[in-house]
Queue: 3 jobs
Job 1
Amino acid sequence: MNNNQSLILLGVGGGGCQYVANVKRLYDGPLNALGLDTDQHAIGNLDGLRATLLGGPRLEGLGSGGDLVKGRMAMKDTTEIVQSELEGVRAAVIVTTLGGGTGGGATPELLRTLRKMEIPTLCFALLPFSFEPAERRNLAERVLPQLDENADTVVVVDQSDLWQRADALDKPLPEAREQASAYFSKGLTLLWRLLFYPGFIRFDPARLLALIASRGRARLYLSEATGPDRATTATAQLINQINQAAVSAPPRAVILGISGTEDLRLAEIGTVMDQLSTALPKGCRLDMGTVLTASEQGSLNLATLLFETWEESPGNAAITDPNATTSGLSAPKKGRTRNAARTSKLGYSTGRGRFRDIEPTIFNGEDLDIPTYIRKYITL
Ligand SMILES: Nc1nc2c(ncn2[C@@H]2O[C@H](COP(=O)(O)OP(=O)(O)OP(=O)(O)O)[C@@H](O)[C@H]2O)c(=O)[nH]1
Ligand SMILES: [Mg+2]
């Protein structure tokens, strides 16, 4: 099993599949992704995304027509095929658009299947645009509690907010769609990049699994800046977004991904970490990783996931997932259930795990070690 396949990205319904197809197209590396929809025609229009038709004979590939029950039944009809696609998967990221019958009806059922298979789930639920009929939003609101109940972590993203933040509201539609997808894609693929293409500071995969399994809501924020003060500017943008959001609970744990090109400097990482950790509430745990990309010369990108229900426990801190290998997301060993792993073993590594891939800074034959302003954020 290739490690890239141990994490899967699933799109559900017409909109969810479109987002995932765009993410896959925009991501510069192998990404294990699958679309799930009841509409054969919509599946045919997915550019480069493998997709499974849900509820074949029941709906004859014509979609659910906005019917949540049909969406749910279609997923039930196709459970075995979907399960076979998930063999060996260690964690699933789901993107669903709510407002229609497939996204709204099939997603809770899919999450139940994933839970039975003991696969931790991070579910991005995109709400209808504010200009869409009120019934769509009402339908979406009805589905959210079912997502909360069946997913491990739910990230609710308002599509109008997303397009506004991506500066796409005023653009012609094809361009706007591209821009909004690119923006979302950067945040979403952060996890893949952090785990599979780390640069300098690696994010601990066991830690990611523990955070996803924490059962609750999370929020996604992204920022980008160029120029000599890009670290300060991008961090200020991020903090601004975090502070402006109407939230139900303050963050308890944060994953920060810093991505830049070869010109990313250690001092910039320090600036981001100093400013962000100062802005976060006391006791909020901040974990980070860096990614070096070849594209987007000169820009520094920040992506954060803020978890609202993380509980730091001595058990978590002390136990390392025995299934986690160097890359941490390999298939679980047979013969023990992942439920057990989730409740008692899915802590984060307390060894020098995250320093594994850091090249020592050698100067005049001496290892200068990690600067303290970086090291103080990292648990040894
Ligand atoms: N950004 C974007 N959003 C979309 C797209 N298609 C649908 N949506 C959003 O997704 C919501 C649900 O619509 P669909 O995804 O088409 O519905 P579905 O889940 O396929 O369900 P049915 O078509 O009723 O079976 C809509 O209200 C829109 O907000 C798309 O191509 N791009
Ligand atoms: Mg549809």
Job 2
Amino acid sequence: MTTFAALAARIEHEPREAAPFVKWVGGKGRLLSQLRPLLPPGIERMRHVEPFVGGGALFFARRPRRALLTDINPTLVSTYMAIRDDVDSVIGGLRRLAGRHSKQRYYEVRDRYNQNRRVSPSKRAAMFIYLNKTCFNGLHRVNRKGEFNVPAGSYKNPRILNEDALRAASEALRGADLRCASFDTLLENAKPGDFIYFDPPYEPVSATASFTSYARDGFSQEDQTRLRDVYKALDRRGCKLMLSNSDVPFIRKLYHEFKVDTVAAPRAINCDATKRGRVSEVVVRNYA
Ligand SMILES: C[S@@+](CC[C@H](N)C(=O)[O-])C[C@H]1O[C@@H](n2cnc3c(N)ncnc32)[C@H](O)[C@@H]1O
């Protein structure tokens, strides 16, 4: 018979469900059920690599034992590191910020964050999460000087601190190698047999759809072409590759020699409510 103590001990050792700790434009949370069937057979034995990790929806849903996660956004990556290495301090910092939240306070924290004074990595991580949870639509946008300039959101009661979620994220990240880098560095770091999921900034569907700005610079068609070249080099190396992008002729042409599936994605962030329907996206794979 299972005793209560034995059951409690088992629950204690079962990995907690993990999920992104930030809202992120292009986050894949709502596409997971369509992406999972497209993962390669034998993925459990592979290292999980995400060069455009963002909120890391697929990584957290999978919780692989070994991972390499990179992104070009330096504060996002240092926040991942702080959560992996010092989650108690991040929680403490966030608790203090959450306890005093107001619109006015949001702008004070944003100023402090932009002054970039020497603060500990965990304090900066707490500010980053606080701003993400309370800003307009969870956007991350910076001006030319690199200052975060998103206005406050109008949430009645935003959930700023979710301690369990942060601890689960910290556990999931235990085996993760984290780096702030551009996707090209994969040419140095990827190994044969790695599973690599590319989720770059999407090619705009129309000229006016290019409202998303992830870092200081947008992601141009030259960047998309460079990414395709990296994809081809890693295909030759023997990596298992999966890539998401918008379903537009330019992207289909770039990857015409690979296997292309489509998924139907809800549009999560669009200021225009009439444009919030479903949109077709491509998933490009180099395996069946
Ligand atoms: C579509 S988002 C990824 C979303 C992520 N899959 C999720 O579930 O939240 C794209 C990410 O690419 C990053 N990025 C933009 N340009 C990059 C580059 N040249 N190299 C690496 N990352 C880049 C952005 O900072 C952003 O986090």
Job 3
Amino acid sequence: MEGQREVWEREYSIPDPLWKGPAPEPVLNGGRVLELGCGNGKTLSALVRRSEAVGLDHSMNALRACPVRAPLVRGDVLRLPFRDGSFDAVLLHHVLQHLMADERAAAAAEAFRALRPGGLLSVRTFSVQDMRFGKGAEVENHTFRRGNGIIYHYFEADELRALLSRFEEASLVEETAPTKFAKGSVRAELVGIFRR
Ligand SMILES: C[S@@+](CC[C@H](N)C(=O)[O-])C[C@H]1O[C@@H](n2cnc3c(N)ncnc32)[C@H](O)[C@@H]1O
């Protein structure tokens, strides 16, 4: 079966690439900031206006399509090519949801390692309330492979807290937004800040 990196390469080879919507307002200002799984730069483009930002993604096609003037690194969130404590802040925006359970644990450990003591982790990830929960073939608990081959995991809030238990929680909320697809259907994500 095609691996996840190959699936993402294929997605980003499409001329009208994914993840084009408006960038969320970055809550992390200033300092040295690492965005993990930066894709084609939706969030990174906002980050570079106020921080010394670095983007990392495993898809070369995504990085090629990224118009942002920032250092871009091809790499895996499971094994970061940075020294311990290199960053004041790390973003994991809609990345943990595309990993299997053991990979989510590895990515959380790497984010912790790459942050300086007191540094901040910003997390956004789909929750079990999201309208797409349950779509596709279940490959692990609350984790589904959709028709395009991409893995989607949907979190409970306490599950995310447990994953990030080495950090101190500064805030964690669930944001929901109605969608145009069906009455009552929502896009739902957990949005949190955690301190190392
Ligand atoms: C939904 S996109 C999010 C893009 C961006 N963070 C944003 O919020 O706009 C998920 C990104 O994570 C990347 N990704 C998934 N697994 C990865 C891994 N193991 N290592 C590095 N990047 C990964 C994908 O290539 C994709 O660009």
